[in-house]
């Protein structure tokens, strides 16, 4: 007997343009009840635009949407909720000054007879959803006090509170810890079993293989192919090559290595050093050196204190004690301005808050930290700025509808490329990197890795944090393992591998 699978959501010939540039060129999707359908494509391919149309955010488009065979046209996200559509956005959209529970139930706060908010019920309802997905955040906590990973879990809870039938997940895992991803995937499995239709966007192949039923590949706004993973028997590595080839249009034989070659020799010249950095409750007596040509990875579990150390070096956070040396000379950094003046840059994990200025263009953002280099006789040299922008658009393949586009209108991955360009262009002596490739497609990742390697080869001391272990292993010449605020081990060269890293952490776990 043929199994009849119900199509819950269908898009027909969806086309969308921004300012005369077509970014979706006729998309026909069929999302079935009880399936996780992944959208895969390079940064700027049109994935978010497509699901924003389904969610009623973009209403000016050509084509049709059907839910359970009925034609619909979501007018706005509220309308989409009424049609049974729920979405988790790529960029977090919570209100920091409200409590967690108020954010989850915003616009639907339970009221008492006298019209005031029924906080008791609000917190209880919120706690019930949290319990379902094992979240331990307090419903009355202010969102501004939460880590990015916790904020993302709150976004997911908010989506679940709508009990939607069609669920749109735009890179929901980009800031989650491994544990958070596991909790999310368990929830997604449950939603699938309950017959929901789920669209999932991710750049991480291990996530695609873990939960997707089918994958549709988009390239430059065009629908390239749909692969049914449940019918594929090839090993994941082979499937990955096939998907990358579909995404990029590169022949499978021509897809190169993801990571550049590591430094052959590291000189003895110490470029950067920190001594005895201590901040009670966060990190304790952190000391290390970075030599010329070296990429050093700071590795550890979430909460090990890595981001805090990096933020203190950059002057973003204070520290109780500790000394900093650049090229052998002691330096004092009280704030990020001092750090930048001394040639220290930070690619931060939170691109929205501190990475770029959304209301400015690409040129202004890329030249933000090097503005003095482009000043001649007191005037900004526009030609120099433009050249720099064009260089980076080319080097990192930044997809934009025009050179004049505002950075806030770029796709998420392309915004991240602008942040990275800004710091690569700054000719830093020390570059601190926290989660550099969040939301970046696989091809752009390899280009960014090569640029980081080139910087190190040219004398920049690089200190990197990433939650993606393969990235840390693939790039670092030396890894410092941090656990509970202390450096517990140092690994060099081939000794930087999963087993040694995990052993170092667990040997020091209580
Ligand atoms: N509001 C907007 N105004 C102008 N152009 C836009 C707007 N939103 C998106 N675009 C453009 O549409 C194209 C597709 O962007 P979209 O965000 O859909 O890509 P994506 O596939 O989701 O990429 P990523 O993987 O980086 O998130 C990009 O060129 C982007 O610059």
TrEMBL record:
One of its GO terms (cellular component) is plasma membrane. It is a peripheral membrane protein. SUPFAM superfamilies: P-loop containing nucleoside triphosphate hydrolases. One of its GO terms (molecular function) is ATP hydrolysis activity. Keywords: ATP-binding, Cell membrane, Membrane, Nucleotide-binding, Repeat, Translocase, Transport. It is found in: Cell membrane. Residues 9-245, 266-509 form the ABC transporter domain. CDD domains: ABC_Carb_Monos_I (cd03216), ABC_Carb_Monos_II (cd03215). The keyword Nucleotide-binding applies. InterPro entries: AAA+_ATPase, ABC_carbohydrate_import_ATPase, ABC_transporter-like_ATP-bd, ABC_transporter-like_CS, P-loop_NTPase. PANTHER family: CARBOHYDRATE TRANSPORT ATP-BINDING PROTEIN MG119-RELATED, GALACTOFURANOSE TRANSPORTER ATP-BINDING PROTEIN YTFR. This is Monosaccharide ABC transporter ATP-binding protein (CUT2 family). It comes from Pseudogracilibacillus auburnensis. The lineage of its organism: Bacteria, Bacillati, Bacillota, Bacilli, Bacillales.
